[in-house]
Write a structure and sequence with these properties.
This protein is mainly α. Strands 1-2 form a two-stranded antiparallel sheet. Helix 1 packs antiparallel against helix 3. The longest helix has 17 residues.
Length: about 120
């Protein structure tokens, strides 16, 4: 588990988000991506990227993505914990976290999440 003072390294695909009042690091590691491939029943990273590129995510999808990102970042959060978590901005805040995380993972360090909305 990461220490509380650890900052995100965008070059590793990490982002930071305030969840339940604490700054957390999220990262879609290879293990987290494998978890999402299984959850979304796709057979490759390309299939996963295509699913996300459609921009039509359900709330349950966002829970899974944030949960996988939290676990990939070393946080002990289940998907149930994510569903009950407090994020500033409500559903818009959740969507911003998902957009930033997917942008960091699939588009890289120089990408801007606001240029690639969900």
């Amino acid at each position: 588990m990461r220490s509380a003072g650890t900052r995100a390294n965008r070059r590793r695909g990490e982002i930071e988000a305030v969840i339940d009042g604490e700054r957390r690091v999220l990262c879609l590691t290879l293990g987290a991506l494998a978890e999402l491939e299984a959850a979304f029943s796709v057979d490759s990273l390309n299939g996963l990227a295509e699913r996300f590129a459609g921009g039509r995510l359900k709330a349950a999808d966002m829970i899974r993505i944030i949960g996988a990102g939290l676990r990939g970042g070393g946080n002990l959060y289940s998907d149930e914990d994510v569903a009950e978590a407090d994020v500033e901005g409500g559903i818009g805040g959740y969507a911003a976290i998902v957009g930033d995380l997917l942008t960091a993972t699939f588009l890289g360090v120089d990408a801007d999440a606001s240029a690639h909305p969900l």
